[in-house]
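Design a sequence for this backbone.
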């Protein structure tokens, strides 16, 4: 059984209490060996010019809750009569069952954003297992960070989201061609997840330097070898992704609790991104 999200939070809190924590001493191991088994999908470098990239994600943040009329909304199913009685006996309406359904919707929002080719085109990345996993971790962090802001209730729901993520990640690792020593790989990816969570949260602290988040994103998302030296050619994409992350953080904080818990929100679409 994978460790509970509460353990992740405990790990995070212990590091965040130390305000002098070095972002680059955290366990952010590379996963290039897994990525090597996949044929990378090269980004469409001509899709977005550097000038356009530099203008992106500068608009004022806003709530990303889905409007009531949106076909993407998820609504709790309602049943009447014998079916309602039967489902109640089967604990369909229990708090745990409802939380699991909510967590599934939230995780689908994450997957919907990170599995679209456009996110790799916009940020000029090849889509490999490594980059897909990195995007998955970043968007999981965004959701768990927002849920944590709602206190124990949000942390508990985040636990279910985290467990769904782990089940999905195991499937992704298997599809990437890793069938032997799967448990070992999952433990390694777990350490990467913890390291990324701490690095990103530390970079968002009020006392963090302006470029801490940019550096954490470069090392944990863009750099294949975990190098702390930023590649100048990747700078426009790294800066754009940093703005995207900061904006999504604020947008999620402006999104009401009901929309977050029910999964009735959507990350900023990148198919036709606004400035």
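Sequence:
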């Amino acid at each position: 059984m994978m460790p509970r999200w509460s353990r992740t939070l405990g790990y995070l809190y212990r590091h965040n209490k130390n305000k002098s924590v070095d972002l680059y001493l955290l366990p952010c191991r590379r996963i290039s060996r897994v990525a090597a088994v996949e044929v990378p999908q090269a980004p469409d470098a001509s899709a977005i010019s550097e000038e356009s990239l530099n203008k992106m994600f500068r608009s004022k943040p806003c709530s990303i809750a889905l409007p009531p009329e949106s076909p993407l909304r998820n609504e709790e199913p309602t049943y009447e009569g014998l079916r309602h009685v039967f489902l109640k006996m089967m604990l369909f309406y229990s708090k745990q069952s409802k939380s699991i359904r909510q967590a599934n919707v939230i995780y689908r929002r994450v997957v919907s954003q990170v599995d679209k080719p456009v996110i790799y085109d916009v940020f000029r990345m090849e889509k490999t297992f490594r980059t897909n996993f990195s995007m998955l971790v970043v968007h999981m962090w965004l959701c768990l960070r927002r849920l944590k802001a709602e206190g124990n209730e949000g942390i508990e729901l985040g636990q279910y989201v985290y467990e769904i993520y782990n089940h999905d990640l195991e499937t992704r690792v298997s599809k990437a061609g890793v069938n032997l020593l799967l448990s070992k790989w999952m433990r390694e990816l777990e350490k990467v997840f913890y390291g990324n969570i701490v690095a990103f949260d530390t970079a968002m602290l009020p006392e963090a330097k302006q470029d801490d988040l940019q550096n954490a994103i470069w090392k944990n998302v863009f750099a294949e070898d975990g190098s702390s030296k930023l590649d100048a050619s990747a700078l426009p994409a790294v800066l754009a992704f940093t703005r995207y992350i900061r904006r999504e953080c604020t947008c999620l904080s402006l999104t009401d609790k009901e929309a977050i818990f029910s999964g009735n929100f959507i990350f900023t679409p990148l198919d036709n991104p606004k400035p």
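Residues 47-262 form one domain.
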